[in-house]
Amino acid sequence: MLTCPPGVTGERCGDLIMMDRSLHRPMFVMICHLVVCDLLGATAVVPRLMMHFLMGQQKISYFPAIAQAFSVHTYGVAMQTILGVMAYDR
């Protein structure tokens, strides 16, 4: 399994997996998918948390709440699916 040295972000690990032909095996491709899924999950959660903690804004209207709930649940399903496929691949 690929281990990234300290200080190398997940994004760079994804770039490394895409560039090196010897890492084009299913497990490494799924690790790259995990990196992308984490980036998408962070964009679903972090903006609202920033508004809440930095500005003290604690209310959210209905449609953004539904959109955020959908994004968070989709992120969870995608993460569980990728991890399940990785476990099945082993």
From TrEMBL:
UniProt cross-references to InterPro entries, sorted A to Z: GPCR1_Superfamily_Member (IPR052921), Olfact_rcpt (IPR000725)
Record-annotated membrane-spanning stretches: 27-46, 66-88
Any Pfam family matching the protein: 7tm_4
Localization annotation: Membrane
Keywords: Membrane, Transducer, Transmembrane, Transmembrane helix
Chief place where the protein resides: membrane
Membrane topology, from the record: Multi-pass membrane protein
Protein name as it appears in the record: Uncharacterized protein
Protein's organism: Goodea atripinnis
